[in-house]
């Protein structure tokens, strides 16, 4: 067989730790969340937010993002979950794959808004801080599709074609077993990593505050996803000849453009703080020393004198 990208064996998709089964797909998602949290925390702190406040926000954003991702996937693939004899428990088995990024964006945005309201962080400040981190998280999560042997593209003869076993449920009927497929997971990973550098570069050149960075993210990701989605062969609902996720990608592009134009007009200047007025966090001044708790120096002297007096030798009478 010519050069190609092999799919990992079934022993790589999951492993057991006692009674628990750990899935590689879940580990990829978890790794993405951790990386995104670290990057966002660093960026948000540099913008004046309290160190560690991102943890209070993601306590809302991550769970609602996961719920949104699963709900979106199930609703856009109803034939996979709702049919005669279907096990409705399958709708919550996220470890078997099927988490839509567009759903996670909706759920995560709702969670982030709630978290920002509770912590006093500006929503747009958090959104701009998380923009490049989202791309890193998505690139890491896409690796999980490789472990799951899913979401591959149409057949290709390119040297980086992906090997997929012919017994795969998504394997197209009639194709020979040695057929290679476009590794769409890899294309999206590369596109997302490049997008990180695009956002960081633009931040050095123009003002990407007040929601403009997240707007660039939506546009960048939407453009890439609108193409990668067209070469995937997994089942999808079709509307007017276009896959559901392509419509969602178009929506992300339009939303990003609207946010960028509206925020550029409404907020042309710099962002005053990452916190809402009245809830700013003030870093402690390292030059300010704690209050001296030692007693007065004069007390030391008096105490010393008293001690000397007590310890002084006394004269005794030798009168006989």
What does this structure look like?
The protein is mainly alpha-helical. The protein has a domain at 27-51 and 121-266. Helices cover 53% and strands 6% of the residues. It has 8 helices and 7 strands; from the N terminus they run ββααααβββααββαα. It has helices at residues 24-46, 53-76, 101-119, 123-148, 184-205, 212-228, 244-266, 297-311, and strands at 14-17, 20-23, 155-156, 162-163, 180-181, 238-239, 242-243. The strands form 3 sheets. A 3-stranded antiparallel β-sheet has the order 3-5-4, with no helix packed on it. Helix 3 (101-119) runs antiparallel to helix 4 (123-148) and helix 4 runs parallel beside helix 6 (212-228). The longest helix is centred in the middle third of the chain and has 26 residues, at 123-148. The protein is globular, with a radius of gyration of 30 Å. The protein starts with 13 loop residues before the first strand and ends in a 9-residue tail after the last helix. The model is unreliable at 300-320 (pLDDT under 50).
């Amino acid at each position: 067989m010519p050069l190609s990208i092999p799919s990992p064996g079934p022993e790589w998709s999951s492993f057991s730790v006692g009674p628990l089964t750990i899935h590689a797909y879940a580990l990829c998602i978890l790794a993405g969340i951790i990386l995104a949290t670290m990057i966002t925390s660093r960026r948000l702190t540099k913008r004046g937010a309290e160190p560690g406040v991102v943890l209070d926000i993601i306590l809302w954003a991550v769970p609602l993002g996961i719920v949104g991702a699963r709900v979106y996937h199930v609703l856009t693939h109803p034939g996979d979950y709702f049919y005669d004899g279907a096990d409705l428990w399958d709708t919550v088995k996220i470890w078997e794959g099927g988490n839509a990024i567009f759903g996670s964006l909706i759920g995560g945005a709702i969670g982030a808004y709630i978290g920002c309201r509770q912590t006093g962080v500006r929503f747009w400040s958090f959104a701009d801080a998380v923009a490049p981190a989202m791309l890193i998280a998505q690139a890491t999560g896409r690796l999980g599709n490789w472990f799951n042997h899913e979401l591959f593209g149409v057949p290709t003869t390119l040297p980086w074609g992906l090997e997929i076993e012919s017994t795969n449920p998504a394997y197209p009927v009639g194709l020979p077993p040695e057929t290679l497929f476009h590794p769409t997971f890899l294309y999206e990973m590369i596109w997302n990593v490049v997008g990180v550098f695009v956002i960081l570069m633009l931040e050095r050149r123009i003002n990407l505050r007040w929601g403009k960075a997240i707007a660039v993210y939506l546009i960048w990701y939407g453009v890439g996803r609108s193409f990668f989605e067209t070469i995937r062969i997994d089942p999808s609902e079709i509307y007017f000849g276009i896959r559901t996720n392509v419509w969602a990608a178009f929506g992300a592009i339009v939303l990003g453009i609207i946010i960028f134009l509206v925020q550029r007009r409404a907020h042309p200047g710099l962002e005053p703080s990452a916190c809402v007025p009245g809830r700013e966090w003030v870093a402690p001044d390292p030059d300010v020393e704690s209050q001296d708790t030692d007693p007065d120096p004069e007390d030391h002297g008096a105490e010393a004198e008293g001690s000397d007096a007590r310890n002084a030798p006394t004269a005794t009478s030798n009168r006989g």
